[in-house]
Amino acid sequence: MDIFSILLFFIYSLLILGILVFVSPLLSALIMILIPVVFVFILPDEAARFVSIMQFSYSGIQVFNLHILLLIWSAFIGVISYHKVLTWYLLRESAPVVKDATTAATPSAADQPKTLVFKVKDFLQKLYKILKGEKIKLKS
User: Fold this and answer.
1) Is 20 exposed, middle or buried (0-12, 13-18, 19+ CB in 10 A)?
2) Contacts for 57 with CB less than 8 Å, ≥ 6 apart
3) Residues 9, 69 contacting (CB under 8 angstroms)
4) Which of 87, 88, 100, 130 is the most exposed place for a label (fewest CB within 10 A)?
């Protein structure tokens, strides 16, 4: 195994993990994709040579640096998507439950069917609140 490749992938993973934890998961995803792409555009021959270095072979199956890079990408994309879904789930807020039977039987003006314009506007407002990190109230 090439020690330089292992060291480079380790530094790359630590950089992505540091940005993921301390800055932003979306920025870490962007940096995760941009570093190899910029490297390919700046030094195309060296980048092609680096990803084609064979690290090891197991039962006739060769593992190149490209496979290790794809493994790192898939792992971090899984962590980033899990983080975003978990953050959304923890920030949402359920609507209060109405216990009075008389008020539950009569629908209010808010429960009436809305036009498409109001539905889109309501969706965009909720999406804006989620992106800002605010809690939203859900209908039960």
Assistant:
1) buried
2) 63
3) yes
4) 100
Assign 93 to helix, strand or coil.
strand
In DSSP terms, 58 is beta-bridged to 61
Angstrom distance (rounded) from CA 52 to CA 4: 14
Distance of CA 34 to the CA centre of its chain: 15
Per-residue confidence in pLDDT tens, the chain, 140 aa = 578 888 999 999 999 999 988 988 889 999 999 999 999 999 999 989 988 888 888 888 888 888 889 999 999 999 999 988 888 888 877 766 666 655 555 555 555 566 777 777 887 888 788 777 777 776 65
For residue 112, give the 3-state DSSP assignment: coil
Helix H or strand E encompassing 28: helix 25-42
